[in-house]
Amino acid sequence: MLSAPSQAAEARSPLASTVTSNGADVDAAPRTHDPDGPTARPLTAPATDADHIGSEAVDPSRRAPLSASKDALRRDYDSPEDSKPRHPAPSMKAGKDRKAVTAAAAAACEVGDFTSRTGSALVQQIKASTTDCVNTLFSVKGNDGYLAFREAQMVTVADALRDGSAAYPGDSSTGTPQLVLYLRAGYYVQYYDPETVGTYGTALRTAIRGGLDAFFASSHSSDVTDANGETLAEAVTLIDSAEENARYLYVLKRLLADYDSSYNDSWYMLNAVNNVYTVTFRGHQLPEFVKAVEDDPSLLDALRSFASDHLDLLGTDQSYLTSNAGRELARFLQEASLRTQVRTMVTDLLARTSMTGRTAPLWVGLAEMTDFYDRANCTAYGTCDLAERLRDAVLPVSFTCSSSIRIIAQQMTADELAASCTSLREQDAYFHRIAKDDGPVAQDGNSTIEVVAFDSSTDYQTYAGAIYGIDTNNGGMYLEGDPAAAGNQPRFIAYEAEWVRPEFQIWNLNHEYTHYLDGRFNMYGDFEAGISTPTIWWIEGFAEYVSYSYRDVTYDAALEQAGAQTYTLRTLFDTTYENADQTRVYNWGYLAVRYMLQSHRADVDTLLGHYRTGDWDAARTLLTSTIGTRYDADWATWLTACASGDCGTVTTPPDTTDECTGQDVRELGQDCARSGLAAAIGDYVYLYLYVPEGTAQLEITSSGGTGDADLYYSADGWATTSGYTDRATGSGNAHTLKISAPKAGAHYISLHAADGFDGVSVSTAY
What we know:
Layout: E1 26-27, E2 39-42, E3 76-77, E4 91-94, H1 103-107, H2 112-115, H3 119-128, H4 131-135, H5 143-149, H6 151-165, H7 176-192, H8 194-197, H9 202-217, H10 226-241, H11 249-258, H12 267-283, H13 287-295, H14 298-309, H15 319-330, H16 339-351, H17 360-373, H18 378-381, H19 386-394, E5 397-400, E6 405-409, H20 414-435, E7 449-454, H21 457-468, E8 477-479, E9 491-495, H22 509-521, H23 527-530, H24 536-551, H25 556-562, H26 569-572, H27 582-599, H28 601-613, H29 616-627, H30 632-643, E10 658-659, E11 672-679, E12 684-691, E13 697-703, E14 706-714, E15 726-728, E16 735-740, E17 745-765
Parallel strand pairs: 2-4, 6-7, 7-9, 10-11
Antiparallel strand pairs: 1-3, 5-6, 8-9, 11-17, 12-17, 13-16, 13-17, 14-15, 14-17
Helix pairs in contact: 3-6, 3-7, 5-7, 6-7, 6-9, 7-10, 10-12, 11-14, 12-15, 14-15, 14-16, 15-17, 19-21, 20-22, 22-24, 24-27, 25-27, 25-30, 27-28, 28-29
């Protein structure tokens, strides 16, 4: 997944209803980050949704409603299996699916049903609607926002929450969750369009306090059930949406104190407890919240007690509850009036946990906070040079795959390293045959890639943020940086998919690597430039296409979407990280790219010509005007066939390199190959070619066959293991060397048999 720029404007907003958490790769330079609030963590294999919080720069005077349906991505490309923001915000668990509304639910929900009603009629409409329906109202805009959420409407709904809470039965039968969610939607929509919706004042503040007071006073609001948890979790978030963080400290303390193992059977109840950390995380932006804690610091005791009393949760599916308690306790280090008290508590918890092992999530969470808010006191905490210490302790494996690829890992065997390297190296040739590029785009110096592999998704989410300053609510992230900057090191950060063990797999390995190749050979400049117009359909769709087609894996999720006919091709050209959910970004991006490559290759070549020169406006004109809607009918026909299993044949583009024809079988040439090469272990196959004056780049590729051949190159004489200009080594026979501005004259290439090999080809192009 690529990571997109963070949006300071969203730093403090009432949370939107849901969040999708299956992202694809992201690329961006590591950044200084205020440790996020609660962290979203997948419970199982590919994470699903995580109703998370987390933000970047905060404007204390204006708290934007955090949209849970999108969080900044950047070409830090996230991978399509999970995603979350990285600001050590409290982490949320992604257990039960709470995905964006289904197309069917959305179609059955009309905004006019709400905008045309007032008073008791509005209340009845809300109660009669599904929560999925109410979820769609977070996206209401313009005059509909005014009609649905002006202050008088919100007061009516808040009063209905108050009046109904006394008889609240602990479930949704009386429409309480819909009322709470409607109020959350109102705060969200009003934040982003206050001039249209109107201001919220004393009348609503009085009404919302009455509604929340009554709900939390209800005896059934403490029931430990899914039925109650659905409403309770939203109500705790509503505290923050309404900026009533100071008033409801007692609710936060009660939830922390009441938690026990019975909560673990209910995702909603766990969500309710975790939402406590949302309220504390964002409460720091409200002076009255800080003052309330100063007056009654027992909230600090509640957070410390939860962390210390529930160390047993660390290493389990509920680990995030304990680590988030520590994070949010340590976040109070930013408040000078509370710092001395908090230092003592944090130091004690650090002493009871360790940098590695089962208690690491809590230790790292605490350490991140001290590093950000109290770095000058790092010696007392034992957290000085945090990122470097963690990197040294957690990522001891360093393995060179080739001259352009290095793997940094937490734990990988020799066979696992060899297999991963082979997969990456052999993807190079496949990518170039699809892309039909002429080498790197101008001013791109990202000639090497660092692949960081954590041992599991848990390790990734524990350590990657602290070491690399990234979001970890995803299936991996590509950090491109500035490709024109000297010394820039692109890397992607991933993890082993522990849920497929004993099979070994680095999750999204080929998707992430495609982002690196795409950024280097197809997309001019850095990621900010590349998304100056909507390009996400290509960026994420192409990464998905290459990953699935290269591995010869059927993308069942995308083919299933094809049958829904949800989007026209023209609509998909407008996809951004902000206006699309994960299904549209990845499943539909894949479908659009596959269709265009199979059916309109000439248009793709023209498009890539614009992308490679940074002519984003010309690319946009091609997509929106030249192509426009002209293919939409054919697209619909193709989708129908694809849904039935006939998407057309996805074949590996053939290697069309001709055999070299020189009489000397050792001589190579321009755009030709020598095949069937073989040697016994320790021996060499020697080759050479002549390069003309003015050659910009010489590319040398070895591939195919059996055994293990390493590729060596010399500009001055026969290349050997002890005398060479450049080399590409590692298991297997797939190696590539790129020589910039080679001198005119003879150049020497050899294959060295690290193990006996046979049937290998070497090709040269310039």
